[in-house]
Amino acid sequence: MIVFRLGRIRTPQGPGMVLLLPFIDSFQRVDLRTRAFSVPPCKLASKDGAVLSVGADVQFRIWDPVLSVMTVKDLNTATRMTAQNAMTKALLKRSLREIQMEKLKISDQLLLEINDVTRAWGLEVDRMELAVEAVLQPPQDSPAGPSLDSTLQQLALHFLGGGMNSVAGGAPLLGPDTLEMVSEVELPAPHVGAGPSPKQPVAEGLLTALQPFLSEALVSQVGACYQFNVILPSGTQSIYFLDLTTGQGRVGHGVPDGIPDVVVDMTEEDLQALLCRELRPLGAYMSGRLKVKGDLAVAMKLEAVLRALK
Fold first, then answer.
1. How confident is the model at residue 40 (pLDDT cuts 50, 70, 90)?
2. For the Band domain, which residue ranges apply (predicted)?
């Protein structure tokens, strides 16, 4: 029993008879026995694009009752959140095969990471065991490399400079293995005269190619305006917008007309992986590859745009 006398903490009392002064002392009971709880199964995206339902079983005990009362109000909730956050961050960095083959090793690493946080609360986790409930979506990567459906082939044609005109002119379609990053070049100032047009940046080509897939149904579902601050390989930053608030939606270069609901910071490589469905918005946010300024729930509605591409 932890006793507070006129607001000052005293030496832990008990077990047994404890004398309390009415109106002067207040107390809080602390159970020093080992307790357990379950982290409810949650959906996580692995490094290779698989979607898993993963939970965990955790056993813990309080070794310092004074710290447990003074530092944290609700130990059960705080420990559960710490375990869930550590589990999410750890699994985002591993493929499905690693999670299935090295489950015990991952559990031991999580145990150490959680204890680094909870020791300051007077609490120690004795056991942590992962439980993979189900594989909701298989990995997107295969030994032969990622494949592109017809939509992604059109995207690849667009940002590699071919466009639909190259298809009409008889140029061969790009195969699954031809998708690659194109080096960013500085666009010269517009001028009058004949000559080849400069190579289109990867980010601009990818985002501009979204226009045919925008619709009134998508605008009704999302109803938000996004600003993308894309960091190019050269270290410079380009700004693009995706406005899904009116009509059939618009996408283009520069800042939107009004104030965006969400501002997203990401690299050009991560933007390509996002639009090619090699990276999920939630997984990118949890791993720090996608930085969001604004309402996170609105930012996660980008998943609807990706489904439209599919």
1. confident
2. 1-155
pLDDT digits (tens, 9 = 90+) for 255-297: 888 888 889 888 888 888 887 777 777 777 777 888 888 887 7
Is 224:181 a contact under the CB 8 Å cutoff? no
CATH of domain 33-137: 3.30.479.30
For 11-38, how does the pLDDT look when each residue is reduced to its tens digit (9 = 90+)?
A: 888 788 888 888 888 888 888 889 888 8
CB of 1 closer than 8 Å to CB of 27: yes
Strands (E), 169-307: 224-231, 237-244, 250-253, 262-267, 291-294
Task: State the pairing for strand pair 262-267/224-231.
Answer: parallel
Q: Which of 303, 293, 231 is nearest to 263 (CA)?
A: 293
pTM of the model: 0.44
Which class in CATH covers the domain with range 200-309?
Answer: alpha beta
Report in angstroms the alpha-carbon separations of 117 from 32, 111, 129. 19, 10, 18
Instruction: Strands of the chain (E only): list them.
Output: 2-5, 8-9, 25-28, 35-45, 51-62, 123-137, 224-231, 237-244, 250-253, 262-267, 291-294
